[in-house]
Structures are given as structure tokens and as C-alpha cells.
Design goal:
Dipeptide-binding Protein, domain 1, Dipeptide-binding Protein, domain 3, five-stranded antiparallel beta sheet, 26% helix
């Protein structure tokens, strides 16, 4: 049996956490300001952050789509990763691993309490996970459930609880995994796996998330409002009951409606790098890769997209750089992606771009299926699931123009949920906007392309037994090099059959006032800024 215990502030590392560190280190940062000469931290002050986007996001459910920077600081999970990608305890003080990694027993901190003073219990953790498995909105929830004994039965409604989540006592929880895997701990550290107070969520239901109670270093204070009392942002304050070291800043305010001029007037401290008017000599400017990736997914079960050669032929008509330009700004800009796995993940350097076939050969392939005639095009539905209507229209018009010479006429379909496409008998393409929860290829490739995954089996319907076998093999592979090799083999199969067309990933730029010290990104980029250690030097 392997025991993980906390030694001083740093968490002791055994084989699993050491592997996590080896696999993930050095992924996202392309630069950060030097912090070695920083003076002693000063407590107090309000840190104002302009959020990405033009409209306010009020979703405070960790299983939803709210601001990650808010979710990460309102709530706490069993474990978390620090800025250097080391595995650290969250509400779990320590844990033991037995049965070759299939059984993990977590011992919760005695001083871990929610913002209202209520203690965090093993029942809260079990409830929080089972709540996830009752939601159908994210393919990773299903992937998480199926790793735990009894999780899939619970997901399917065939069991009243997950038998692999065992409450031993108030402060002890046992998780029985179906197999040992590095990625098991990634799920526990994910932003959606935060611990919620069971009694309050059951009592208040959806109302709970209008003024949520978590166990994180900051707590909800109030909604920011304008003179008309419209909600324009959110204010968090330092949680004096937090079990760890308390944050230095007293409060954090987040709003997309803060102005760039507010930043120049020194009323706002952190902004996306929205304009080249932001002087790099006067302000701190940093850049990072994000795990935000975009694909075009095919309905692989419907003719003509049931034929790999047709899907592959359509690649030549897609101008990725134009599409990336439509989605880009100085603060958040698309980089063309030709790989299925982003090349900045360790072991996945960019491969040489495939030599494209001649247009005449492509048109010959398309004509074999009755395509390639722009005068008599095939109607194909193009689905979008995100709310930026102006951007959607721009992307739709560009794609429609690009694919018309291939004999395809796209019809725009806006949906609130991809569940709306389940019964569509018209061939379709999905513009799929995906934010990976961790910089690990399994979090991308498995939910999208394994034939048994909830997402693939409901929306894409791609089937390849060899891909399935390789994905299952990598789950239990103990070595980093072996695992990378398996994913490279998977990528070659995907490149040959093209169930999706990779379009681009995004890079981020951020600017902040020079007196803000120790502002760090989390492993997933600037969406997950670490505000626990930041402080204001003025």
C-alpha cells in the first residue's frame, strides 16, 4: 500500500504524482515575469479583472460553463495541481493507494469547511461526483463515471448509487477504480470535480448557484451591478475559514464590462491584451498556449460522410487560416492545427503536413458519390452550439463559400444542446469548440473518437476497432514513452480516416499593472489564473 502524506507545504511525491509531473511539465508557458526579487507580500486591496468576451457569464456551477477563474477560487476539489503541475491536496489531507492502484482511500482535512462553516464530509464528495454523473452535458462526465466501479450503471440509471464510491466514515472516502491509470487523478483535479455541500444543493436546487457556497480560498460576496441594477460582474472576498494559507488580496472583481480605458486609468488591474495600445514597456504582458481547440466533426454514419475518402477529400477546400482569422483578436488568436493532438503537448511535435492531392483527383473522388457539382449541391446541416451569433454567422458564411465548389450547400443550425442532432437524418458537420480539462491527449481523443464514448456514439458515430483497442491500451500503460507511442498510432489512423478536420487552437495574451505581483497562470492557461498567491504592491 502506498501512502501520500503532506510534508510541510510540499506534498510528498510517489510514483503517480512523479509521473504526472514528468508527463505534464513545461506545456503551456512561453514566458513569465521574473519573481525572484519580489518584495514581501502585502495583504489587502481589490483585484479587478476584465473577463474575456463581450457578455457576462453568470454560471457558477462547476459542472457548467462559467468563468474558470471564478470557479477555481470559489470551490475546492479532493486534489489539485499547482502552477508547476505537481499534485497537491485539496480537501483531502492525504490518501493511500492499494491493490495496484485500483483502490484509493482519501482522508479529508479535519479543518476543511465550506464558506458557511459547515464541515466538508465524505458524503459531500460522493454526492458531488454522483451529481456529475446524472448530468449529460459533458462527455468527460461519462468518461469519469465509467472509470469507477458501478459508475456506468449509475449513469444509465440502473443503480441508485455508484458502488465504487464508498463512504467509510465522515472524513474518509474510498474510490474503487476499474483499472489503475495516471488520468484517474486528473479527473479528481478537474474544475468540474469540485466538492459541493450536499444538504444545501438538495434543499435549494438551482437557486444554490445564485449565491453558491464552496470551500475555496474566496467566497461569493455579491453581484456587481450598474446604475440600472443590471448584473455586470461578480465580486469574491477572501475566505477567512479557508484551511490553507489565506489569499493576500481582500477581494476580486470580475467583469467583461470593465473598459480598456479603465485599465489605462489604473482602475482595473488585469485585462486581455485587447489592443496594441497597451505598452509592453509600461505593463506586464505575457502569452500562453491554451487548451481550446476547434474541429469540424462529420456525421460518419450518414452518406456521404460514411466514406473516409469523401471526408478526406473535403479537407482540401477548408482554408483554416481564414477561419482562424475570423475568430482571432490580439488577446486571443487562433493558430492553424493540422494534428489531432495539439503539438505543444509533450511528445507530440508537429508532423509534416500531408501532401494534398490534386484538385482534379479530389473532384473525381467526390463525383463518385454524386458530389462536386456546385450547380446541384448536396444539402448538409452545419451545427453550432455556442451563443456568439455574429461570429457564428461569419464562420458559417466562410465555410459555406469554401465547400460550395465541393458540391455541398451548408445550412446553418443553431442548437442549445447537441442532443438536438441525435435524430437528424440529413448529413451534418459540427463546428466543435472544445476546451480540454487537462493537457493530456486522453481528455481529447477518447471522448471524441472512441466508439463507446457517450459523445462519439451519440453525435459522430465514428467506428474503428483499432483506435478503440489502442485507446484502451494507453489507459493502463505505465510508461510515458509507451503511452505517447500509442497516441501517435491513433493519430495516424485518424489522419487516414478523417472523422474530423482539426482547424486551430488558441493562444492567449494578458496584460496587468506592474504593481501586481506573483500573478501566475494555472496549468490550463490564463482562464485559470492563480489568485491565491497574487498581491498588490502599492
Amino acid at each position: 500500500m502506498i501512502s501520500f502524506r503532506q510534508t510541510s507545504r510540499k506534498f510528498s511525491i510517489c510514483w503517480l504524482s512523479l509521473y504526472c509531473l514528468t508527463f505534464l511539465s513545461g506545456i503551456l508557458w512561453s514566458g513569465s515575469p521574473a519573481l525572484f526579487d519580489a518584495p514581501k507580500p502585502k495583504p489587502g486591496g481589490v483585484l479587478k479583472i476584465k473577463a474575456y468576451g463581450r457578455s457576462l457569464n453568470t454560471d457558477l456551477d462547476p459542472a457548467g460553463n462559467g468563468y474558470p477563474i471564478v470557479i477555481e477560487h470559489l470551490y475546492e476539489g479532493l486534489v489539485r495541481l499547482d502552477q508547476s503541475l505537481s499534485l497537491f491536496p485539496g480537501v483531502a489531507d492525504y490518501w493511500t493507494i492499494s491493490e495496484g492502484g485500483k483502490k484509493v482511500t482519501f482522508y479529508l482535512r479535519k479543518d476543511a469547511v465550506f464558506h458557511n462553516g459547515q464541515e466538508v464530509t465524505a458524503e459531500d464528495v460522493k454526492f458531488s461526483f454522483e451529481r456529475l454523473f446524472q448530468l449529460k452535458g459533458n462527455p468527460l462526465f461519462y468518461l469519469f463515471a465509467t472509470r469507477i466501479e458501478g459508475g456506468e450503471e449509475f449513469w444509465q440509471g440502473l443503480a441508485p448509487e455508484v458502488r465504487g464510491l464508498k463512504v467509510i466514515d465522515t472524513k474518509t472516502l474510498e474510490i474503487d477504480w476499474k483499472y489503475p491509470s495516471v488520468a484517474n487523478f486528473y479527473f479528481l483535479a478537474a474544475s468540474f470535480a469540485k466538492v459541493l455541500p450536499r444538504n444545501l444543493v438538495l434543499k435549494e436546487k438551482k437557486r444554490f448557484f445564485s449565491r453558491p457556497v464552496g470551500a475555496g480560498p474566496f467566497k461569493f460576496d455579491f453581484w456587481l451591478r450598474n446604475s440600472r441594477l443590471d448584473i455586470i460582474g461578480i465580486r469574491l472576498v477572501k475566505n477567512e475559514r479557508y484551511f490553507g494559507r489565506k489569499p493576500y488580496v481582500q477581494a476580486v472583481e470580475v467583469s467583461p464590462y470593465f473598459l480598456l480605458d479603465d485599465f489605462f486609468r489604473d482602475d482595473v488591474q488585469v485585462v486581455p491584451y485587447l489592443s496594441y495600445r497597451i505598452s509592453r514597456n509600461k505593463y506586464q504582458v505575457i502569452e500562453s498556449n491554451s487548451l481550446h481547440i476547434v474541429y469540424l466533426l462529420f456525421s460518419c454514419h450518414l452518406p456521404p460522410f460514411d466514406r473516409p475518402e469523401i471526408r478526406k477529400a473535403l479537407k482540401i477546400f477548408i482554408e483554416k487560416s481564414k477561419l482562424a482569422g475570423l475568430t482571432s483578436s490580439p488577446a486571443y488568436f487562433g493558430q492553424v492545427l493540422d494534428n489531432y493532438i495539439p503539438p505543444y503537448l509533450p511528445g507530440f511535435l508537429p508532423t509534416e503536413k500531408e501532401e494534398e492531392p490534386s484538385l482534379s483527383r479530389v473532384l473525381e473522388t467526390l463525383s463518385s458519390c454524386g458530389l462536386g457539382n456546385s450547380e446541384k449541391p448536396l444539402v448538409v446541416n452545419l451545427y453550432f452550439e455556442f451563443p456568439q451569433k455574429e461570429l457564428v454567422q461569419n464562420i458559417y458564411r466562410e465555410l459555406r463559400e469554401e465547400l460550395l465548389p465541393a458540391g455541398i450547400r451548408l445550412e446553418l443550425k443553431l442548437v442549445k444542446s447537441l442532443d438536438e442532432i441525435k435524430n437528424d437524418k440529413t448529413p451534418y458537420i459540427v463546428y466543435f469548440d472544445w476546451l480540454m480539462n487537462f493537457p493530456d491527449p486522453e481528455f481529447l481523443i477518447y471522448p471524441l473518437f472512441h466508439s463507446g464514448s457517450y459523445f462519439n456514439s451519440n453525435y459522430i458515430h465514428y467506428r474503428n476497432q483499432e483506435v478503440d483497442e489502442l485507446l484502451e491500451a494507453q489507459r493502463v500503460s505505465p510508461g510515458f514513452d509507451r503511452r505517447v507511442m500509442l497516441f501517435r498510432q491513433i493519430e495516424e489512423l485518424l489522419r487516414a480516416e478523417v472523422p474530423a478536420i482539426p482547424l486551430y487552437f488558441f493562444k492567449q495574451r494578458l496584460a496587468y499593472q506592474p504593481y501586481i505581483k506573483n500573478l501566475k497562470s494555472q496549468p490550463l492557461g490564463f482562464f485559470y489564473l492563480n489568485l491565491r498567491d497574487a498581491w498588490i504592491d502599492r
